[in-house]
Design a protein that fits this description.
By secondary structure, this protein is mainly beta. It has a six-stranded mixed sheet with strand order 14-15-22-21-17-18, with no helix packed on it. A hairpin with a 7-residue loop joins strand 17 and strand 18. It is globular, with a radius of gyration of 22 Å. The N and C termini lie far apart (50 Å).
């Protein structure tokens, strides 16, 4: 008897109370990676350190033959090569991108999926053509509601075979703030394969599920898009029977660059007594970041951090901002954290509200630190010492 797609593609589920990370989740974690938190020191994340989530496979992409079509409810359908896109006036925008499932592995019960902690984020300079320019060229017809974006990545999810597709409301797709890009460059170079080479969508302020990679088709439609990634996945639900609310803009978050140096396995940080410079990044996709507070006693008390000025170019306000704080460390164990607030009054919770898919988590990060002046051992081994080779 033949097997069916539903035999290999299981429904969404929650981990049992004592269930550890499964081999399937570990397999996802080896394919996808977050930014090493020490790399938050970079204003712009190097492409190899920027977080990556690939739903299916990285498709083979022939740049010379790649085309992006613009069709549906338009007066003049377009078929654009990469050369066509590059011939149009280009813009570059600095944008912080975060996975909608960032923090999922910290929830209890844990939704079984890509087991993100807090590292699923990065900031890049994206270069491309504003989507609104292409829609204006094509001429959107009356009655248009959504714009649907189709990537070249193809797979099965919860028994549904599909191309990766997402939709945006027409007003967002042709809006000026944020300005959606059809991007072909990252940090001044061609898009790397894992980041959507040769063409991808960039939607400033929105979680990563909206940023369709390996973009090949843009279709204007006369009804709200109801594809799998829009109405089944990426919804805020308490149970599977709910319609839920769509995941859209990024909730405010601050992350701390872990100070001192780490234990290899636990990642607990070690610092020396005295002044310790704490710093990190803060961002929000809903409104400009207004402030960052820092706690060195697991949230019992908070002090205000110094926040870098807002970007000079208002169009880059969808990028993270650097913050800093001086902590006078005393011997003992400590738990550090930082929380951001934005101009709309949004702020990070100390206890994360739960949802079935594990989306839009922005609970305050907890960084365990040991402050000690104790010498921890003989120091680094030389290459010729026993155990000194790698």
């Amino acid at each position: 008897m033949g097997r069916r797609l539903t035999d290999i593609s299981t429904p969404a589920r929650l981990a049992d109370a004592d269930e550890g990370i499964s081999r399937a989740e570990l397999g996802l974690a080896t394919r996808n990676h977050g930014v090493p938190l020490e790399a938050l020191r970079y204003d712009v994340t190097p492409p190899g350190l920027h977080y990556v989530l690939v739903h299916y496979d990285i498709p083979a992409a022939d740049e010379a033959g790649w085309e992006v079509t613009v069709g549906g409810l338009v007066h003049r359908p377009l078929r654009l090569t990469l050369a066509d896109l590059r011939s149009r006036p280009a813009v570059t925008r600095r944008v912080t991108m975060e996975c909608a499932g960032n923090g999922r592995a910290l929830l209890t019960p844990r939704p079984v999926s890509q087991p993100w902690l807090v590292e699923a984020v990065g900031t890049a300079d994206w270069t491309g053509v504003p989507l609104r320019t292409l829609l204006a060229e094509a001429g959107v017809e009356p009655g248009a509601v959504d714009v649907v974006f189709t990537g070249a990545d193809h797979g099965v999810e919860r028994g549904v075979e599909q191309d990766y597709q997402r939709g945006l409301p027409l007003a967002v797709a042709r809006g000026e703030d944020p300005e959606v890009l059809v991007a072909y460059a990252m940090n001044g170079g061609p898009l790397p394969p894992q980041h959507g080479h040769p063409v991808r969508l960039v939607v400033p302020g929105w979680y990563g599920m909206a940023q369709v990679k390996w973009l090949r088709d843009i279709t204007v439609v006369d009804a709200a898009f109801t594809g799998f990634q829009q109405t089944v996945a990426y919804r805020l639900r308490q149970d599977a029977e709910e319609e839920g609310e769509p995941v859209t803009r990024i909730a405010p978050r601050a992350l701390l660059i872990p100070p001192g140096f780490p234990d290899f396995l636990s990642r607990t940080r070690v610092v020396r007594p005295g002044p310790v410079r704490l710093e990190g990044r803060a961002w929000s996709g809903r409104a400009p970041v207004r402030g960052v507070e820092v706690s060195t006693d697991d949230g019992a008390t908070w002090g205000r951090a110094e926040l870098d000025p807002a970007p000079g170019d208002a169009a880059d306000r969808w990028a993270w901002r650097h913050w800093r704080y001086t902590w006078h460390a005393e011997p003992g164990g400590h738990v550090l954290g930082a929380r951001a607030s934005d101009a709309e009054g949004g702020a990070q919770p100390l206890h994360q509200p739960w949802n079935l898919g594990g989306f839009a988590n922005n609970v305050v990060q907890r960084v365990p630190v040991l402050c000690t002046d104790e010498a921890g051992g003989p120091g680094p081994l030389s290459p010729g010492s026993p155990g000194g080779r790698r």
